[in-house]
Amino acid sequence: MERDSIDFKNTDIAALFRKLLLPTVLGMIFSALFVITDGIFVGKGIGSDALAAVNIVAPLWLFSTGIGLMFGVGASVVASIHLSHGKVKAARINITQSIVVSSLLLIGTSTLFCSFAPQVVHLLGGSERLTPLAVEYMVWFVPFSVFTALLNSGMFFLRLDGSPNFAMMCNIVAAVLNIILDYLFIFPFGWGMFGAAIASAIGTTVGALMIIIYLSRRKCALRFYPVKFTRKSMQLTRRNIGYMCRLGSSAFLCEVAIACMMFVGNIVFIHYLQEEGVAAFSIACYFFPIIFMVYNAIAQSAQPIISYNHGLHEETRVRRAYLLALKTAIGCGTVFALVTIFFSSEIVSMFIDRNYPAYEIASKGLPLYATGFIFFAVNIVSIGYFQSVERARYATIITLLRGFILLTACFFGLPLLFGNPGIWLATPLAELLTTLFILTIYIKAKRKHKKNIVSLQHGNDDKEILPKIQTPGKKPA
């Protein structure tokens, strides 16, 4: 648990990005393996209905992940700026507040979800055939949501403290433990949905406990700070949490957007292709978060670099970090798209046997689905950039467009125009339209930048808004 030596201010951007990227991506890859393996074991060991049932409940897992990312992003951006100004105590207070409040929030929501499990599954689109399996999985996994959130938010704090390698180890331990227990509980023990759920719960809990132990050590710059319950302290906490949530809201919405994609997709697929369609779609849904994890790892690697230098008004270093992250994500997106298009049958066969009707549906649909991976890369990294420079409004608008407004319209509209292939093309079209929106923002900013340069040359002191970095306002303590 030794801290690495990371100088966010003076180290070359490319070297700094590589140092953070490798352990972050490796950690995310192991998380991706956990998602893939969970799907493979459920599909092969329990059946295609079980795979569809997990997909019905998946939005609740994404909800807890989104809460963790929202508080992780928000607190780490604010803490980064405080650290760049030498305010270590304020940074410690920020991360403590974020962990305490997010944990209390998830304890409350988990209790509510489990108390009305059949009704929640019905609202999520579960059919009469899938509901028993979905409820069984839900009541054993959802109570551990608080650890899922902590595992996700803790990654930001460990990297900011200079320990990206230990952050990677937390993900690896959680993933490996889950894979081993998944196999044991589903195959030798024959515990079915209960075994799949409890294996995932144990894995995430152990990873989260590793983060708690790390943040409790006195030698860490970022560590837990005693919580005060005075009236003034509660008022400051409420202000700080509100600001963190505003900065990290788009990270939460990104996860909710995936949940929305699953929810709306389940409704559309079950309408056109019945339960077999949902089972086929669930394979894409297992695949989509994996792609998101890699893009998110790239964005998270750039985040502390961008936020720290944003606090110092080092605009050139901020831009270089963003462009480097963007190029890396586009390269990964191209590889992901090509692999999925040319090996769709092999990917599907990992999850279900060829004799299931869902196999053919998924094999034909995945290549269409993969056409949006490159646009998805641009959108996720751009959202991360806007979060890191405290432009929450832009990040939120982009997230709402790609994950809710355009996605829902495409899911319901494209099948009417193109039939069943239109369902698979809904997500790629939504991502493409969002990328065009980001390009529009960039072009307008470029024109404004040139106009401001001309104005400054003529003695005008007006400052540009984009793509330069705004002068931060007063930050919460």
UniProtKB/TrEMBL annotation:
Membrane recorded as keyword: yes
GO biological process: response to antibiotic
GO molecular function: antiporter activity; xenobiotic transmembrane transporter activity
One matching Pfam family: MatE
Membrane protein topology class: Multi-pass membrane protein
Record has Acetylation as a keyword: no
Keywords: Antibiotic resistance, Cell membrane, Membrane, Transmembrane, Transmembrane helix, Transport
Assigned protein family: Belongs to the multi antimicrobial extrusion (MATE) (TC 2.A.66.1) family. MepA subfamily.
Cited NCBIfam families: matE
Name of the protein in question: Multidrug export protein MepA
Annotated organism of origin: Bacteroides cellulosilyticus CL02T12C19
